[in-house]
Amino acid sequence: MSQQDYATLNRTNDKMPLCGFGCWKVENNIAEQLIYDAIKAGYRLFDGACDYGNEVEIGKGIARAIKDGLVKREDLFVVTKLWNTYHNKNHVRDAFEKQRKELGLDYIDLYIIHFPVPLKYVAPDQAYPPGWYPPSGPQKLEFERSPMYECWAEMERLVDDGLTRNIGISNFNVQAILDLLTYCKYKPATLQVEIHPYLQQKRLVEWVQEQGIQITAYSSFGPGSYIALTNDGKTASPLFEHDIIKSIGQKKGKTPAQVLLRWAIERKLAVIPKSNHEERMKLNRDLFSWSLDNEDKKQIDGLEKGLRFNGKRIVS
After folding, report:
1. Residues in domain NADP-dependent oxidoreductase (predicted)?
2. pLDDT per residue over 142-170, tens digit each?
3. Is 114 known to sit in a ligand binding site?
4. What does the alpha-carbon distance between residue 64 and residue 281 come to, in Å, rounded to a whole number?
């Protein structure tokens, strides 16, 4: 792995690949084979979550790749996330252990708090993954009094016990991060947040990087993933079809997806694209042998619209 392929995490100095494979919306019936194929294609970081509901299958894909000699466990960087209903200090470890066992791993490389939103506890035998709303009753968020400082202390204990090497956060804003930094023993290693040309989050990125926290950008391709969820994706032109992105791709001999991912990499952001197609998997990883011109970046920077497609699903 060359110097430009990875980000070095605080505290552990672990090398996190800058281009990983995202497991959101990976269907269970293809997940095992897809992860196996992604490992064959060269992916070493896999970004999952309790909420995605596919960790058993992801674990099987990883196990098969290790058994077949494609990789060793230490070659992989596995990320997963604590769901909102498990923020209470009495539930963090049980939630983690269930996920670790479903993945079939001795340890996790990076465990992330998915949202700074403590929801009422839902037992796994009631619903798993539990989702945003109670399994019965009205579709209404039910919060619980589980303060972040107690949740984070439990995350730190997972580190102390050797169960996860790194801990991080997702969908936190500056205020939430600043509060966490006033009491944490271990600073978050990473922040994962929505970033694409329509939502560039320049001030957030600059401030978080100044704190020594690495950033992973999700939804690098913009609105497409959200049309089926909220219709929010229809509020902007698809980035793959945008004239500026297409023209830069044509000039560089790259796909629109590669242009969007390279734009993020040049901001020192990690990316986690997903594809069901082996050839596109390979193309999405081809980000380090070429670069964007200053004029290319200037044009892409001009696409900022402040459009947050995940906005209806989070507190931000």
Report:
1. 25-304
2. 999 999 999 999 999 999 999 999 999 99
3. yes
4. 19
6 has catalytic annotation = no
Alpha-carbon gap, residue 41 to 20, rounded angstroms: 11
Helical segments of the chain, H only: 28-40, 55-67, 92-103, 148-160, 174-181, 202-210, 227-230, 243-252, 256-265, 278-285, 294-301
Residue from 43, 52, 198, 218 carrying the catalytic annotation: 52
Residue 302 forms part of a structural domain: yes
What three-state secondary structure class fits 145?
Answer: coil
Q: Is the pLDDT of residue 3 over 80?
A: no
- How far is Cα 68 from Cα 70, in angstroms, rounded to an integer? 6
Peptide bond into 129 cis (omega under 30): yes
Beta carbons within 10 angstroms of residue 87's beta carbon: 29
CA 177 to centroid of chain Cα atoms: 17
- The domain tally of the chain equals 1
- Distance from C-alpha of 116 to C-alpha of 234, rounded to nearest angstrom: 27
Rg (CA), the chain: 19
Q: Report the alpha-carbon distance of residue 31 to residue 25 in Å, rounded.
A: 10
